[in-house]
Fold this sequence. Notes:
The complex is a heterodimer of chains A (86) and B (154).
Chain A: E1 2-8, H1 10-16, E2 20-25, H2 32-39, H3 44-49, E3 57-60, E4 63-65, E5 77-80
Parallel strand pairs in A: 1-5
Antiparallel strand pairs in A: 1-2, 3-4, 3-5
Chain B: E1 5-10, H1 16-24, E2 32-39, E3 47-54, H2 58-74, E4 78-84, E5 86-88, E6 93-101, H3 104-121, E7 124-130, H4 143-150
Parallel strand pairs in B: 1-4
Antiparallel strand pairs in B: 2-6, 3-5, 3-7, 4-6
Amino acid sequence: xxxxxxxxxxxxxERIGKGEETxxxxxxxxxxxxxxxxxxxxxxxxxxxxxxxxxxxxxINQEHVDHGEPIAGAREIALFPPMTGG
Amino acid sequence: MDAPVTVRVQREDFDLxxxxxxxxxxxxxxxxxxxxSGLCRDEAGALNALELEHYPGMAEAEISRICHEAxxxxxxxxxxxxxxxxxxxPGENIVLVVTASPHRQAAFDGANFIMDxxxxxxxxxxxxxxxxxxxxxxxxxxxxxxxxxxxxNR
Lengths: 86, 154
């Protein structure tokens, strides 16, 4: 088991219904893409939040990463929609 | 001396003149200062306010990375970026960028670069509060903003 701290923002946060959580991940989840696919199996709220998986942006330890990025050693993984600041 | 980079993410408003003075104070080597302010517009009366959510920690870190890259790339003598969060009403400030350089082109380009990367990469999200009381929507990201960033070809 691998423990990860997840944080969610904007409509990802709203649809999942929480801003952060700590999850135990089963073996075999290597990348951000694997993590997204796993989260979608956790319930309808995750399915709704992550339905369009390719638009979801991710950050590991507060730096942007692609979906192919390995998550090993991540202290904090953030998932959020495209940004709209400025 | 190293070009000073100041980045703040804050709820309260900022004072454009004070930020220019802070960047300029005690210096005689700066020949050009460019400021950009982004404001909340009312969308022809349809918008009551924007609610800006951000990722604390990463917001500061990402804007700081962008400003340092701009300083390197354009040879800026200093850069300041301030981004507000929370509820912001039409007419209020959202974001400020100040750049300084010996000649104008670097300051203009630096401010432009910082804003293009900030819009596409700084972790902020805007939600609308509509004047008609209907449920506010999250503002959609624009392809044009990604294109504006990508034209810098780094």
